[in-house]
Amino acid sequence: MTVSRLRRFPLVAAAVAGVTALFCSAQDAQAFYIDNHASITRNALPPNQVSEIAMLEILNGPPPGGGAMGSDAFATDQWRHLDNAKNPGDICARAQQAWSIFEPVIISGSQPVGPGASVLANGPAARAAFGGLAHAQQDFYAHSNWVEGDIVAGQLDRVAPPIFPTCNPADFPSDLHTGYFNMLYSQQFPLDGCPPSGPPPGYQECHSAMNKDGPTTARGGQLVPGTDMNMYDLAASLATTATTTLYQQVHDLVASTVAAKNPGVDGECVATKLFHPDLLGPCAAVANPFFPSSEQRR
């Protein structure tokens, strides 16, 4: 499926720059341009299972998740974007931090409440947290050199090992890394973030040299040999596939967790409501004090 090639809104970039300029340490780089995060997420999630109401909150929602687009407002959270990672261990550490922050929000927000378990405790927060996970998953392909490895190996459809819910550094090539980025070296959009002398010791490349956030970046615009794609196209394609897998993982996790914590509640029904909040029916039998069920009469 075709993904949008629009660049992120300059106003958003300016707002992010205003916040992050206060920090002196290495800050995280900007991700797939915002519109591209939206397109990848929309292409990844099955429209018959994810309603437009849910999609809007998956893209932009309340903190801590913020959504797949809104996550860029949190420009100093390296774990949201997997930036400044020197090796697979660093990448996995950032991914696991993202999971440890977002997963509890998804689970707690998905707990059923009300008569017949008909509504969720905090659906908007849960959906935005899922969007935050999707953002990090997508940035893995935009910010790391995984795509370059696929090209060298001649395996353009090779998706990376999972980074959620667990991430094992040994599953990845030893030279896997993301680029160095520091907001102090960014004066205007698109943000550069690279010192004039190049990346500091320990970092192989700068984010500005290796990111595939859009088709006009230095690396993103390079053609993939033997195809009519550029590296951005390939990164977006792999990110779309990985986001679909993440959706299935989270859906199944919610279903199994809700069923285990709430006897008598249909966990699959609740997981469906998470991504289709306009479905209003109950997910459990509604108690009737005037006509008790056979279980209640025992």
Which key phrases capture this entry?
single chain; 298 residues; mainly alpha; two-stranded antiparallel ribbon; 2 strands; 46% helix; elongated; disordered N terminus; disordered C terminus
Shape: elongated
Report the average pLDDT across residues: 86
Number of domains: 1
Helix % is: 40-55%
Strand content: under 5%
Strand order of the largest sheet: 1-2
Most strands sheet: 2 strands, antiparallel
Order of helices and strands: HHHHHHEEHHHHHH
* Rg, Å, rounded: 21 Å
Q: For the record, give the distance between the C-alpha atoms at the N and C termini, rounded to a whole number.
A: 56 Å
Number of strands: 2
Q: Helix count, per DSSP? A: 12
Low-confidence segments: 1-30, 289-298
Structural class: mainly alpha
Structure report:
Strand 1 (112-113) and strand 2 (119-120) form a beta hairpin. Helix content is 46%, strand content 1%. It has one domain. By secondary structure, it is mainly alpha-helical. It has a two-stranded antiparallel ribbon with strand order 1-2. The chain is built from twelve helices and two strands, in the order H-H-H-H-H-H-E-E-H-H-H-H-H-H.
Please give a quick description of this structure.
By secondary structure, the protein is an all-alpha fold. The protein is built from 12 helices and 2 strands, in the order ααααααββαααααα.
Q: What is the strand and helix layout of this fold?
A:
Layout lengths: L9 H11 L13 H11 L7 H8 L7 H4 L7 H4 L6 H22 L2 E2 L5 E2 L2 H21 L2 H8 L53 H4 L20 H31 L5 H9 L18 H4 L1
Antiparallel strand pairs: 1-2
Helix pairs in contact: 2-10, 3-7, 6-7, 7-10, 10-11
